[in-house]
Fold each of these.
Amino acid sequence: MQWQVALNNDSFDQAGITKDCQDAVCEYIWNSFEAGASKVSVSITGRPLQKALSLVVTDNGTGIVFDNLNKTFGTFLSSLKNNATLRLKSQSNKGKGRFSYQSFSHSAEWRTVYRTNDKLMQYTISTNSANRNQFTTTEPVDVTDVTETGTTVTFSLEDSTTVDLLSFEAMKQKLLEEFAWYLFLNKDKGYILEYTGTSLDISEYICTDLSRNCLYNIGNHDFSIDVVVWNSNVSNPSKIYYRTERGEIAATQNTSFNKNTVKFYHAVFVSSKYFVPDMLIPAENDSGQTEMDSFSQAEQRSVFRELNKHIRSLVADVLKNFLVQQADAELSKMEQKGNFPRFADDEYGKLRKKDFETVTKELYCVEPRIFHKLNDTQEKSLLGFLNLLLSSEERENVLQIVEQVVNLTSEQRKNFADVLKRSQLQYIVEAISIIEKRISVIEALKKIVFDYTEFANERDHVQKLIEQHFWLFGEQYHMLTADKNMRVALSEFEKITAQEPLNDVHAIPDKEALQRMDIFLYSQQVLNNNESEMLIVELKAPHVKLSIDVFNQIVRYANTIRKEPRFTGSSRLWKFYAVCAEVEDDVKVKYKNFEHHGKKGLVDIIENFELYALSWDDIFQAFEARHSFLLGKLKLDYSQIEAELGIAEKPPASKADVTALTQKLVAINT
């Protein structure tokens, strides 16, 4: 059967039909979705030089009803879908999309199955570019070998260049731009676009983790709002698309959340029965006449006013989550570039850094423009000044500084002020928790070294405790080795100081090299005059007194290290502690020779090597002196601490009791 299109060939040439083969293929995919398809498959069949190549688009839509051909294929620049489209970029195909094949093929054939009177009918439609104003069809026939409606359209391909342009690799980005949002909105319905055997992965174009959906009822009308966040820039970002119940784009509007400084590319899709094609969207302050169906002007303005409020709230919530992710990435970049302030590498330093990161992240989320296009010097100065304020009693002034940079809304001001208060309280609570845990360790250690001497020894108790809680000797230290011989310890020291590996360490005489050092600590911080500091600690069982023989052990350590020129530079400060519960008198007399240095327990100085004889009480007093202000304010209940550790009752009856207490202390995370 032959049909005539009511236009001549010249009119086709002047109608603006696309000449881009990729756009043309997208037209046919959209035609499938607009026909109610939930799955569209595009394939290229045949082989070059062996079998004719064809592009095939298959869908499970409603098919093309034969009785409607006069209103569809028989008309040009007119269509049953003339004023309704699912597409974002064009109002509609205006009845000419089916002729797009001319940009890449000489002919097209539709094989379609539709339902009428509870029967499935099938026929074909054929057309070619030579006679575009004509098309032929077969007579519809009943079909029994298929169970659902749908259409398969086949296009001949004769140009190898066209085949390359229509490959999945060439079409992928185009398909994502055109269809990712539509597939995302219909993901719960199982919509699929398959191209040459590969299903389109919408997560490559849409940030599915951030995108949100909410349902609202306004004036007895249901509205579904989807906020879609693009992974990269798109041609029409920051738009609101109002969609009818069938998914057609009824109207568009700009959003107010286009934050280019943080590349927040997004779109809002609002779907409802309330919307009709070509409707007018009233402005919030619009007092003019607006007509839409039977709804009154006042009701329409009221509905849209409430709807816009929900849209703004939802987009603001998505933007906040987006900025939190962005802030993490930006802070990481700042730190990698070396623009972060320096923090002590101890527990207090970690707390201060955490506090700084929390406030800086929130500041970024409140107004990212503050950090936009700063050079390294500016960024470093801003972060340093922010840290200075947070470290002082004037931390609330951070808000005043921010207000001078950018105007904050009252809600932003309140949120940021709350964060400052919360982070300060969090810092205090965590600091107190650390102090309490450390006091618990010290109180139990006092019992072990002063009261439980009968059952406590060096290896099983004192050594294990200090390996875990070496902060007793200062916050600046890090553990290098514990209970390792001199050769191993110095080799490890070479690694962390970035020295060239030298085999000379292994040349230390075995007698000296096999000396075992209980604790070897080092400081990453650079001290005054660019000195770095190392600390070696000799421990003994609680019953052992600090005699000349014990002190001479650290003398031997010092003398061995002094023989290695690469360890004796003037920029290195070596400290050696011998620590026991009690210091004998013949060692104490040596203190007088070095009293003028003002360093407690100092017994000898050899160039940049300092040797100390200290009691455990000296160590405990030094800790209390460093934390005297906090300890004075906290007024801890030491009896309760002893009760919790089980040391307030009778003394231990065996070594096993001391070992159990030691294990409990080792497990405390300070």
Amino acid sequence: MSEQSSSVVSSQLQQNVAVITMSNAPVNALSTAVRKGLIEHVSQALENDAVDAIVLTSSLALFSGGADISEFSKGLVEPSLPAVLDLIENANKPVIAVVSGPAFGGGLELALASHYRVTFADNKVGLPEVNLGILPGAGGTQRLPRLAGPAKALDMIVTGKPAKAKTLPGVFDVIVDKPEELQATVMTFAGELLAKGEAPRKTSELVIDKAQAPEQLFAEFRKGIAKQARGFYAPERCIQCVEAAVNLPFEQGLAKEGELFMECMNTPQARAQQHFFFAERAASHVADFDKSTPVRDIKKVGVIGAGTMGGGIAMNFANAGIPVVMLEMKQEALDKGLGVIRRNYENSAKKGKLTSEDVEARMALLNGTTEYNDLADVDLVIEAVFEKMDVKQAVFTKLDEVCKPGAILATNTSTLDVNEIAAVTSRPEDVIGLHFFSPANVMKLLEVVKADKTAPDVIKTAMQMAKTIRKVAVLVGVCFGFVGNRMIEAYSREANRLMLEGAKPEDIDKVIYDFGFPMGPFTMGDMAGLDIGYFVREGRREFIAHDPSYCVVADRLVEQGRVGLKVGKGTYLYEQGNRTPIPDPEVIEIAKQEAQKLGIEQREISQQEIVERILYPLINEGAKILDEGIAAKSSDIDVIYVYGYGFPVYRGGPMQYADEIGVNNVYEAMLKYREQLGDYGKAWFEPAPLLAKLAEQGKSFKQFKRGE
């Protein structure tokens, strides 16, 4: 047995089989070094007369996570992945891929170009490139349909979702039960192939049975994904690639794939989706702690409030196997909250997402109490009570008395000053904001709010805990509304003002929906409850008193009891049991009357003005937040807006969108509306200093570094 190695690829001769092993931590990304290593070791094995077969495998938990996308910006560096795969597929000795762990993107394409594939039943493989705004560019769209069939390949390539190996019998020649069995199995399999004299079997030479791809397959698939694919560029090109696999010879299909790949790469959608991919990962890199900072154990959690928010928060921890004590002042409220959680779990079980055993196991982790003393041994407590400072402070005063030393005291406030809440305790260093988004058991975002005295180990514990409960955490500072709600205030304000100026709510909602949001501002307001915004405005009247038009129609609606979907009428009307908004002429009339009182002339408003008026002030507020250090980097704001507020990921978030269209264009539009809208414009359309500075320098938000 001999061995040759490079830093990331090594080879070992076992009897007459060359075992080539990738070892490029952490995920075996197919970097330039790995591609060179594969070419070198495969070529040597092909030239070595002592080698009769080649095995490709990995020394890591993953077979390969795919392309190294950090190399995208450098342009093509030889050898390309298609060149590596050509060498493997055209090898005159059998090449067997041992897919010893998950294989994604180029990793799966590497396996598909091999002559045979061996894996274990529960292993997951996939082609997730569509999530980066592109498509598999190394033959994946041509080889997968030949092995898995067009229908399965379509689903995997267009959705980007992984599949378990046991659902892909056409792709894998041998599927063992457990990964430990792979090594012995592949050597036996290789021996059998050689004994039978089996020639290399090229995937590219397989012919797709046209009966597996009737004409309606593609039409029905397009129809089925229309809603999810809205606004994205890559899904349609993925479908066209699979059509090419069915209708064209392999080489022509490969050329089509290459052409459509480059088409996708040069789109704003691909730039936005790749920006967001890195932004999500960068959110966990913060300057407030380092590797040496310890973390506190979170083995038991307390949640105060068993309502919608408290119940959702509690579910996150139960889902992660962490026991929760839920506190309510009244037994009736507690029983109701636990009942709602049980129903939520049972509904998941009905949909096949959980077993009945899972439901009972999670419910067993949730215990209720009406006594604060039962929180004495929790490691973390999160309050989710009424959004009023005196109520929050009363809760924290009590927590300070009963919680053990070292317990983290967290508030789920969405707007209030965490410093003021921390000030009523004797341990402000243990206090932090954990702002969950509703429904808390579904929404991925968690705004982690550091107060002035929050300790570094508390911040680090909160950021790591977020991963445990499968949330994406973004660290922010203290100000009214933090990042998300501070910015959404400008968005909602302008939507309401545009209604006064003559735009219909349904027209405004359609423009914002067409931009890519899941719903417009008025539909969102009705769903959340117009009384929530009204309550926030009541606490801020002194800040908005200079603008008598501020959300005045929304105020009138709430005063008439029209608080939204929950009562069947808000900005829109709703039929019983139906969530579809019905435009109401009465609301248009209220807007007209209020406009007359305020001396606002109603007019036709273009779609472009609606987009600019609603989104540019939101971006402008983001610029202030960035300048003030409330957000550490512009990409953090983008993560908050995509995961918390439905900003379309194919636009990358508000700050990436501004970078894409040009910060100077946002700046000039702000100046234009500042002049056009009179006193209102002067009050609300003053460009942020950072927006002006970047526009003048010709820079992007992405390039901004504090202190430069």
Amino acid sequence: MRHGGQILADQLRLQGVRRVFSVPGESFLAALDGLHESGIQNVVCRQEGGAAMMAEAHGKLTGAPGVLFVTRGPGATNASSGIHVAMQDSTPMVVFVGQITRGHRDREAFQEVDYRRYFGPLAKWTGEIDETARLPEYISRAFHVARSGRPGPVVLALPEDMLSAHADVPDIPAATHAAQPVPQDAAAAIVDHLAAAERPLVIAGGPGWDSTAAADLGRFAEAFDLPVAVTFRRQDYMDNSHPCYAGDLGVGMNPRLAARLREADCLLVLGSRLGDVPTGGYEHLEVGAPGKTMLHVHPDPDELGRVWRPDLAVACPAPAMLATLAGSQGAPADAAWRAAARADYEAWQQPVDLPGAVKMANVVGWLRDNLSEDAILTNGAGNYAAFLHRYFRFRRFGTQLAPTSGSMGYGLPAAIAAKLEHPGRSVVCLAGDGCFQMTGNEFSTAMQHGAAVIVIVANNGLYGTIRMHQERAYPGRVSGTALANPDFAALARAYGGHGEVVERDADFGPAFARAEASGKPAIIELRLDPEALATGQTLSQIRAAGRGAG
């Protein structure tokens, strides 16, 4: 006989779970007891939103479901931000939520929430376990659903009395993940379509990738001389120095790459849903009828044809298809088309001169030139991230952790998860002043668990992205976008970490070296000129353009 918390912990060990992220609550004390001698690391966080983002980042980085424990009511609703990231980013994740006792249901008891209704639109599947003896069954299903097809988050609610009750029930071993085979002749059909095209473009994105898939993409593109674009925040899916790499279809994408997307006569979409961001708000391609040959490979058959009408739809993971395509034989495409795409990318990487003694383009350029190829970079949302997207070159798979959902506050939790998984690698978080303060309390989590991340805070005193849009739509009418900030370097020191302020470009490199040598979690605050609002325009230029448009 085992209590439910012990049964749960035993299932996690069988599923290969090595680490969970949590904020403790009285509703799942039995689970905490089960974890006590399980050998599973419990990373205790400061707020459930940050904990959820850590679990999501762990899932994104490892390919195995990230595991989260939160308490009922406020704990669960706080966690919903990270669960939304996992859903939009197609990241495997299993969330355990404490729940009220079964006999108190439907009375609006203390912190009562109907999780099936609440998480229905946010999660891939939500369940509530009513019988202690069914814990192995539900947990086995949760890990299967989180990884199958299009991966995503699964939520399991754990009534407190169910979890503390005892049962004699056998464990369920972890099942081997069922691989989806490449449909017969699909790879040959793709090669035939590409051979008939004059202006082909490969678009890589979506879930389930690994270093082998990234290498296969490079080999395939090189053999057929194809330009490759990656989707938003999937830039580590291909070595950015590869001559076939053409850039990313992200927010603020290279206008020449957007034009190339429109001009292409054949698109090979590998793994991506091809949503609004890579298509420029569905303006670069016509929904339903893209006006060109579309070859769409995606692991979820329900996704194929949901928005676009592909000429060839292949229901299998992109890495499986690439493993076949990488060994294919065929005639290379027009070398001039590919070379022009590469030239456009390299021209886009030339920095635009902007005001300020510290320039984000130069900081990112320093990181590009000095970090090791296996360094992991994380970020949340904000205009500061556009500098990273535009000027950094990712060389290896698994070195970019960022939310395609555009969630603020993601960078620091993701960096902590990455450093715990890869303690020997450099982990650098880029965050805006507003973005950092969404989850900055997790710096305490980094201190507690020895995650020596380096956080670069871009401080311009603004919610920069919103200010940019505000100046375009309502120029000069500033409302709700100014920030009053702390001394971020002093804040790092208050937590026991390393902190520095950089006010000149020349000071950044030495400051980074000192932060790295400290062996502690560190914050380097960049004091930026708010005029340097975007990668290609100043605040004043954006305001003037808005007035001209009005």
Amino acid sequence: MCGQENKKMSVQDIVESLTHVCIELRNKIKDSRANDDIEIEKLIIKHIKEWSSTENNCVNDFQKGLEWFNVSEGLSLKENLKGKIIILDFFTYCCINCMHILPDLEELEKKFTIQDGVVVIGVHSAKFSNEKDSSKIKSAVQRYKINHPVVNDAKLSMWRDIGISCWPSLVILGPDGQILFVLVGEGHRKELILYTKIALKYFKSLKNISNHEIPLKPAAHLLPIGRDILFPGKIQIIESENGDEKIVVSDTGNNRILILDFDGRVEQIIGGYSRGFKDGNFKEARFNAPQGVCGLGHEIFVADNENHAIRVVNLKEKTVKTLAGIGTQGNDYVGGKTGSEQALSSPWDVAIYHHTQNDKSVPILLIAIAGTHQIWGYFFEDTIWWKNRQYKAKTCAAIVGSGKEENRNNSYPHAAGLAQPSGLAVSQRLKAVFFADSESSSVRRVHLQDGKVTGVAGADKNPMNLHNFGDVDGNGCSAKLQHPLGVTWDDSKSVVWVADTYNHKIKKIEIDGKCTSVYGCGKPSKDFKFDEPSGLAISKKYNSILIADTNNHSIKLIDQNDQSIKTIDLKLPKNPGRPADKKFTFDIDISNKKSTLKIFLKPKFSNDLKFTPEAPQKWAVKNLPASWTAEPDSGAIGSALLIQIPDRHRDNDKDNNNDNDDKFIVLLNLVVCKTDECLPKKFEIIFHTHRNDDSDTDLEIYKEIEIN
């Protein structure tokens, strides 16, 4: 029940108190005196009983008229969510810490289903004005493969009703909407799963849990699978051995890297559609939402964001190896271990800086570590840098940023505070790296001779104010940006080009901090404008700017000679000979007389695979005997394949052939979906027909195709 007499507080008071109580509960669970599973369960059940009976401990329902995603209708705590343990995830899609929560929620949803009585609801509570736009939230839901229901709480109604104060925050509700637990920040996976498990068990014992369904309709499956490029993140120019410029782009939504020429011909595809963390050749290797890319010699370095790793692509050997990171998120703010042993947290961009040491140029890989709000370095050689600090070869370490999320400039690099650095641009001539400090909505600079950090444009003079954003041209702090993600250095013009992501613009910043809007109208559009552009690169040869136009799923090119903007049409290599994922063979007996064969193909799923109504599921007939006809010769799963077969004794094609057997093939091109992703699959079904006088002239056949 939602309100029995105990102690009287407002919902906001309850949430504030529970925030502190849950910290204490976490410490008690860690206490050696409570390391017994039975004792821990008793402790948590005592907590649930106390707080579920607290007076006024009921959250208000979602306001009517809010826009929802991943469901076919809006949800209500009092109606279709009643009888469920509900986890409210208060998030905003710009926030890296919010992104770190998503794997925890995914793990929870694997353990407890809606039928079990557990529902996760993402309550999107925007920080930036651009994030209030439902079309942007939908793109973020698709990009980050969020499959649970999400509501656009654009006016922060639920946020204020409950008294939430920061992102991310998790609130666990009981089956009548009573607040049980509050978890603030990231890193609560164990508690989240433990509290949900025990709350579910407790309320089931009271017969308060319902196993009813809710109207799910995942938005992720509305995206076309296998499209040329999906949510591209970053882009870079490299030179081939013959001096030609090539475009390298992180095809983030398809979990792969593409290398193409300026005509759009894709020369290399590195990785595959499915998420993974695997080294190997270009076909075997797997990434997970790769972002930043940069080149050095015949190698390309990749910020493999959701694998929390740096990968290296060797163009000569055609291999992918892991340079740094362990494949899971770390929380190290110092580093210093050998690269493949050093845990990282959401690397978002990479860039090469050539440090002069003993009259020798020593390359250093700079890494924007968005997850710990720092810039790290990977050292290829023994290196002596600021304050005579020594770094051993093949180690990876933090070089800029305290780890506190703030806009604090400082002469001492480790005392500076960064706010989700997401883009890097090295000026070798200035011995500097400019970085897009996305959460402070600014572009800042690290002076690479001494490590000093200074502001360039955007943000606020108050280092703690991360909400001073807008779309204003000006100088220094008077200029306003909105969550920029991409920067590139134009040495010929001595300017930094900025992908002002949430303003949907490309701006230029001069060294003195003068910021000017140059391209884009400030609103997202597809008519050669931009929709959350995230990556930039400069082509010297073609005097152009390349843009990874993320939500438009495209690469744009701005010709600075005539100021024209065009979309580069990708031309992926054709692979008609791609082998089938699986082959099936069936035998059919049919009459020698004129006959009709009607075939229905029925998929049978194993594991957690399924179709969604929005994804294409097609079949096509191949190698049909010349005198036979298929009506139609292609179609969608569920529709019948109708084959007309002539009288064998009158079939001229058989005059010189005594074989009574014919065969034909049906190709299935399907998209099968798991909870978190969809994959293209190809199946080949071979039908052997055996003709004789004793068999039927009209057959209707249903064949089951196992998909695993």
